[in-house]
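Morning - adenosine-5'-triphosphate inputs below, output right after.
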Amino acid sequence: LHIQWGGAKQIDPPAEILNIRRGSTGQSLLGTSAIRMSDCNSPSTYSKQMRKENANSASPFGLLSCSSKGDKLGVMRVLEEGVDPDISDYDKRTALHLAACEGWTEVVVLLLEKGADPNSLDRWGRTPLSDAKSFHNDEVCKILEAHGGVDPVGRDSRIPCYDIHQREVDMEDKILIGEGSFGEVYLVKWRGTAVAAKTIRSSIASNPRVRNAFLKELELWQKLRHPNIVQFLGVLKHPTRLIFLTEYLPNGTLHDILKKKGRLDPRTAVSYALDIARGMNYLHEHKPHAVIHRDLTPRNVLQDASMHLKVTDFGLSKISQERDAYGYKMTGGAGSYRYMAPEVYRRESYGKSVDVFSFALIMHEMFWGGPSDKADAPEQVADKRAYEDSRPPLRSLIFPEKVKMLLRDCWHRNPDNRPTFEQIILRLENIQDAMHEEKRKLENAACSECSIL
Ligand SMILES: Nc1ncnc2c1ncn2[C@@H]1O[C@H](COP(=O)(O)OP(=O)(O)OP(=O)(O)O)[C@@H](O)[C@H]1O
């Protein structure tokens, strides 16, 4: 039996679905910043570590990350440190591939000036020009062509989803790590690396309409790459079941963290909020179509080994058609009621700012220590937000003034008045700087008291 997957070559589905292993071929997916929790047991250690990480942009990962974000200065800094402009990830995708995909013209020009190969081939034999063409980044196409770029695959070629063969994954020792509405999630080894295998139960995957909807979502997810987005790795095919692999995040969900720790200290809450906002900004600024998550909740935010947060589960997301000025009509009660924007609950047209609303409620929970309205049923909470304009309390003792202002703007009843994630990031960075400054002053004051004594 053969199955066709998103334009990829046909493969034989595994007889024994999950007893698979393949030799390691690439750089570790998870090794970008392996700081253990135990190394970061205080917020100050954590923020020092964070600054160290930010300063450490001279890594190959820094070049790829800056290129995908369109951060020209960052790219310049990394290249000046001597990083090879043709450094690639485990799929042999270079900084030029990433910048070409996203349409970052200036970064493309800079990389070419610094000697990047315009015709480097990724795992699927695609050049940066193939990617620029697929995403209709015409200006980037012209620049690449002027530098001798060619496209061996052609404009209409689709980026194939990764085919994961049974030999690649070792499910012998699989460990159940969770269960969601679509099926179980296991910790398994793929090419010797720990990854999460998400299984979609047969009752869902065997329905061709739902299966196709899922495949479309995975096809979208496969194209997304950002340090604050959980990395999709590939799909394992089977006639009735659907199993896909993502990066494994060992510290669980933000929901688990809040349940265990309760209220976070303000500096941690702000740096977590920045992680989420950066991931969401990447989704909303994605070209050629913005990605609306639509189900942003603490359960869909996971923490990696270096304590950074990443957004996951685009099962309910939709590609926002930029030409559709009226946004989407909601078809049903998708998403979690507790984090649902009023316009979604009222089944009105909606846009990217529904995610900003959900983000505000998540940020509120980080300061509060969980949902402030735990006693009420989620649907009742959403109803009150939509029809009575009710919002969680903002006590001055808990919420710094600027955080309060940000939350009020983000959960504004009028979606057009909510800030974009780009604006949210700037405001959060401002708040973070002020917090660092305050801490520095307190430490200095404590030091001078010590010396007087
Ligand atoms: N990449 C991952 N790394 C580590 N643990 C994960 C990963 N993905 C999921 N999990 C764990 O598995 C659980 C179930 O995840 P899943 O995404 O299937 O469902 P959910 O988001 O909790 O709920 P729903 O399916 O309703 O959205 C999560 O709560 C989390 O504990």
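Note: The CA atoms of residues 325 and 351 lie 9 Å apart.

O.
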